[in-house]
Amino acid sequence: MKNIFKIDTPPPTISGNGNGNGNGSGNGNGIHIGHIFSYTQGDLIAQYQKYRGKELIYPSCFDNNGIPTAKSARSIGITNPQDIIDFSIMRSEEYFETFKSSGIQFADQSYHTYSPLAIEICYQAFEILKNKGIAYKSNTEYLWSETLKTSISESELNDEGLIERTGETPIIKSGEGWFINIKSYINEIKKMSDLIDWKPFKYKRRIDDWMENIKWDWCISRERNFGIKIPGEENFTFDTWFISSLTPQIAWSAYKGYNDMMNTPIFDMRFQSHDIIRTWAFYTISMSYFLKNQIPWKTLMITGHTLDGHGNKFSKSSGNATAPKPLIDKYGISGLRYWSFISALGTDIKIDEEKMKMGWKIMNKFKNANKFIQMQISNSWIGEKEEYYNKWIDTKNEIYNHLDNYDIDKANELLYHFFWDILCSEWIEESKKDPISITLDKIIKEIEQIIGFFYIK
Asked: What is the mean pLDDT of residues 372-401?
């Protein structure tokens, strides 16, 4: 496993108003600039590991078994479950065309959460949890959304106790449902969380606070006619987070080509936004502990949100999101990636076209600098200055160190500073008087490789 870097990729939810046209119009149909910001930060770590010689488990994937997908399909008259699945697969092609055009480079593996493989893994995990007494059926009180007409879990409430998706106050009902015994194992789950390297560490406080205040076991049954059916139940489907808590196992099995759930290793990294720490992060940590008494990943990389002009999070449902295509057309992939790397992990950010313009300028300046150095060599204006190459090696190792520590903003700033302020502004200017083109050529060839995974030439 030493030569494989394993990434638990976030599967974006197929949602929106259902009229996706693949043109990135930004009207709530597909992937918006907030997605690209978050995925680009994760993609930098992926491409860096690939550059360092690692094979990647880094699947393209999407989530299509929940309420948002069914709602999206029904908005255009699609109600049959199989037709909803087919619709979601069609929509996913638009999603990943947007990812591709934005410079995200997934590995060859792929999955979706309503696939036969995901369903098989879901059922296997459920049986294991039932046999261990962790999953249980009970006639008890549970939380209910009158708007969604389904039970919900405590994690779906915001800090004010309202249901996040609808803004309503939940109703407490009594009746039968399926639950995961979270409360009895909370100390063990805390120990698992403590073993994970949180990047940035400050976000670990969110899961710690959440675990301290959990009042209800996890309700995993939903009263829906679309979704993965709970075995033996006519009226219940699984909570979508139950399947999503198994994404490391699904990703591993997708890589292997068959269900290898119980041999799932600890992944190297997951990247995800900070708003789903108490859902996706918490449930995945819990599931990994329940199944194999191990952590799901060594590192949890927390990304921020992109905000609109009022400071609100971009979202497909609110309709305030900006599409990536116009910005890519204007500033290129390099512009979007440079902007995505200017902030520390977990930091929310607004669109900054001046920063995007700088990413575009870097690529142009690189082309001109390389062209000038090659012209010097072709004109036999040749010389070396080994101390400059040694200084570059020190800088390159420092960039590596920042990336190994997930300090993407520091790595980005150091690369920019060295290339723009030292190589171009100082050394190339010096080379016009004293020939050092051999050294400069060695340096710029290595910078080209790093720029290649930073800004995707």
From this structure: 98
Beta-carbon contacts of 245 under 8 Å, excluding residues fewer than 6 positions away, are 280, 283, 284, 286, 287
Q: For 77, left (φ over 0), alpha (ψ -120 to 50), or beta?
A: left
- Read off the pLDDT of residues 99-126 as tens digits, 9 standing for 90 and up: 999 999 999 999 999 999 999 999 999 9
> What are the structure tokens assigned to 328, written together?
């890519």
| DSSP result, 109-154 | -EEETTSHHHHHHHHHHHHHHHHTTSEEEEEEEEEEETTTTEEE-G
- The CATH superfamily of 4-132+185-213+244-326 is HUPs (3.40.50.620)
When pLDDT is averaged across residues 425-444 and rounded to a whole number, the result is: 98
Question: Could you tell me the residue ranges of all domains in the chain?
Answer: 4-132+185-213+244-326, 352-454
Helix (H, G, I), strand (E, B) or coil at 321: coil
Residue 103, sorted as left (phi over 0), alpha (psi -120 to 50) or beta, turns out to be left
d(CA 280, CA 125): 16
Instruction: Please state the rounded mean pLDDT for residues 325-340.
Output: 96
Angle at which helices 325-340 and 353-378 pack, to 10 degrees? Answer: 80
Of how many residues is the chain composed? 457
CA 133, 139, 145, 149 torsion-angle sign: positive
Q: Which residue has the tokens 């879901």?
A: 122
Tens digits of residue pLDDT in 285-303: 999 999 999 999 999 999 9
b/e per residue, 38-74, with b = 16+ CB within 10 A? bbbbbbbbbbbbbeeebebbbbbbbbbbbbbbbbbbe
433 CB neighbour count, 10 Å cutoff = 7
Q: Whose structure tokens read 């389904």?
A: 150
